[in-house]
Amino acid sequence: MKLIKKAVQKSLILALVLTIMLAAGVPMIVVGFAVIGGAGGKVLGAIGIVCTVIGFYCCPIAWIGFSNKLALKRVLFAIEEEHFYKYSDIAAQVGIPEKEAINRVDTCFKKQYLAGYKRETDGISLNVNKALNEEEIAVTCENCGARYTYKIGQDARCPYCGSVQTK
Cα-flanking dihedrals φ and ψ of residue 86, to 5°? Predict the structure, then answer.
């Protein structure tokens, strides 16, 4: 969810900046050419024209991009937080047709928003496979006697009493 939240935030900021450019561009043109005049007014007016044109053409596109990212975020929320894994369940929860749910899940996989999941014929599931280089070591805590496992490279701290293993 961190990646999609970051993408939504960036998209929102871009859309807001473009909207402000559009709204500020027109007054800059008027003030620059009509009120100030001269070389400074021409520069301000030219900046106003650039802001207006960029805002006019890019603002709608940015808001559509923001909306699309929000739609992906909703699908990810249904999967990761509400634990819906079948396409039909995701579609029903989000309120979209099943074909659109499949397309959005595919987009999430392409953009790597669904790390830790794999595709199935009728939905997705958690990927419980371990990487080949992830070796786990089973130990007995020297302090409390509890048995637990940890991966090589991780902290060998007992999850029960918190003591660090010396071996």
Answer: -90, 145
Task: List the structure tokens of 61.
Answer: 């596109």
pTM of the model: 0.71
SS3 52: helix
Whole-number Å distance between alpha carbons of 111 and 57: 26
Q: Dig out the tokens for 106 from the structure.
A: 């595919």
The rounded distance, in Å, linking the Cα atoms of 139 and 20 is 59
Three-state DSSP at 45 gives: helix
pLDDT of residue 10: 97
14 in Cβ contact with 62 (< 8 Å): yes
On the question of pLDDT at 61 being above 90, the answer is yes
The pLDDT assigned to 134 comes to 66
**What are the angstrom distances between the C-alpha of 60 and each of 26, 39, 69?**
17, 32, 14
Q: Of the candidates 21, 9, 103, which has an alpha carbon nearest to the alpha carbon of residue 59?
A: 21
**Residue 162: both structure tokens together:** 């918190």
Answer for the pair 95, 101: CB distance below 8 angstroms, yes or no. Answer: no
Cα separation, 25 vs 44, in Å, equals: 9
Helices 38-80, 87-94: crossing angle, 10 deg rounding: 130
Cα angle 28, 31, 36; round to 5: 130
